[in-house]
Design a protein that fits this description.
By secondary structure, this protein is an alpha/beta fold. It has helices at 12-27, 51-67, 78-83, 104-113, 160-164, 172-184, 209-217, 236-242, 261-267, 273-286, 305-318, 345-370; strands at residues 3-8, 31-32, 41-46, 72-77, 94-96, 118-120, 142-149, 168-169, 189-194, 223-226, 251-253, 291-298, 322-327, 374-383, 386-390, 396-399, 407-415, 420-424. It has twelve helices and 18 strands. The protein is globular and about 60 Å long. The mean pLDDT is 95.
Length: 426
């Protein structure tokens, strides 16, 4: 039986795409093996959001070639979509971009049989949603389900619209069907994800993200979680609809990027700092005790010390449960890469370190509000003698006396700085 190994870089959308391609290989008779060992086929699902993503992606290709010089290499994902033909110089048998992933096995086997390399990278501006399916991932508790693809926001720093194409949304009936199938397969939590989830339904008639959430919830799955959102989605109407869904987890990832209106404008973000704060306040009012998380870029071209201080102040004011901080990384071909006043790497990284420290403070403050609460925890895996699980707010909890895959009530006793320690009370 031939073997296949996957390495996935980047976001949850890539995780979904990897799982879908892996299941294509399994149906074709391939046995999945670990990427760190020998395999007949290595698939690297790449990321190109930052230069770090590029570097890690190419390092993974080189690691695969060292492990088995005779193996067939498949380079997939965003870097493949961007660089296409250039990647043939790596010796990859197949380069496959942001479409044709359901054909990955046929394309690879055709390339091998005909002793040639294939580049399956085409124009993705006006293509339909690719009907991939998964049976589940992330162990036996949580499954990621992609319901949206592409982005047309064209933020000045972002390469993603160029490598993921235009807005494509999954049909509501397909969302219902896959959610039901995953629930029946034993998955207790579904994460709805997309490249620009907020845009779900803009290419469909009479559908929006709230409709998609309701469609997934109709499966009866115990937990439903949303991926990254734009703050503009958090209107009174949207919040009013989703708060009626008992299975919805009260954790919302609202992408901020900067707390400075001047920087937000240069980024071509479509909200102000005040509008972001108001969106967060609406969520806190509708979902008391909820967790709001975010992404922030430090050192964007022209960012002054005052701009950065405004970001720090907004982080403290919003009381984020977690923040993900990224020093600005110029992406060739984006407007921001050609902007004046590019900041030195040292400044970008120093501001990132400062903001990470602020984020730890707000995380600790949020955790303080959770201590003593009894929360349902979905147990996922074992770590250093403890079992790890997550509350509906996606707070990690370490505990003993439980089993993976179970949903138990846990009192949150202590915050370690990275996770809660808890006591099972059910």
């Amino acid at each position: 039986m031939p073997t296949v190994a996957f390495q996935t870089l980047g976001c949850k959308v890539n995780q979904y795409d990897t799982q879908a391609m892996l299941e294509c290989f399994e149906r074709a008779g391939y046995k999945p093996v670990h990427f760190d060992g020998p395999a007949d086929v290595y698939v690297v699902n790449t990321c190109t959001v930052t230069d770090t993503g590029d570097r890690k992606s190419m390092n993974a290709v080189r690691r695969a070639q060292r492990r088995n010089p005779d193996a067939e290499i498949v380079i997939a994902g965003c870097l493949a979509q961007r660089d296409g033909e250039k990647l043939l110089s790596t010796g990859a048998r197949l380069v496959i971009g942001a479409n044709h992933r359901a054909e990955v096995v046929d394309l690879l086997e055709t390339a091998v049989r005909e002793h040639r390399q294939i580049v399956a990278v085409g124009n993705i501006l006006r293509v339909p949603f690719e009907p991939l399916q998964v049976s589940g991932d992330e162990g036996h508790t949580r499954a990621v389900m992609k319901i949206q693809e592409g982005c047309d926001r064209y933020c000045t720093y972002c390469i993603i619209p160029y490598v993921r194409g235009g807005i494509r949304s999954r049909a509501l009936e397909d969302i219902r069907a896959e959610a039901l199938r995953l629930r029946e397969a034993g998955y207790r939590e579904l994460v709805l994800t997309g490249i620009h989830l907020t845009s779900y339904g803009r290419d469909l008639e009479g559908a929006d993200l709230a409709d998609a959430v309701e469609a997934a919830a109709s499966s009866g799955v115990e937990r439903l979680r949303l991926g990254s959102l734009e703050p503009v989605i958090a209107s009174e109407v949207f919040i009013g609809r989703i708060r009626q869904i008992p299975s919805l987890c009260p954790q919302f990832h609202l992408a901020l990027q900067s707390g400075s209106d001047a920087v937000l404008k240069r980024m071509r973000r479509r909200y102000t700092a005040q509008e972001f704060r108001e969106a967060a306040d609406r969520l806190y009012a509708a979902f008391p005790g909820c967790a709001i998380t975010t992404d922030i870029i430090t050192g964007f071209p022209g960012e002054t010390e005052a701009d950065f201080e405004q970001t720090c102040a907004l982080v403290r004011g919003v009381r984020f449960a977690r923040i993900h901080v990224f020093p600005y990384s110029a992406r060739k071909g984006t407007p921001a890469a050609a902007m004046p006043d590019q900041l030195p790497r040292a400044v970008r990284e120093e501001r990132a370190r400062t903001l990470i420290h602020v984020g730890r403070e707000t995380a600790a403050a949020w955790a303080e509000t959770q201590l003593g609460r009894v929360r349902p925890v979905l147990v996922e895996d074992q770590e250093d003698g403890f079992y790890r699980g997550y509350t509906p707010e996606y707070a990690p909890v370490l505990m003993t006396g439980v089993q993976p895959g179970t949903l138990v009530d846990v009192r949150l006793d202590e915050w370690t700085g990275t996770a809660f320690r808890g006591t099972c009370v059910s």
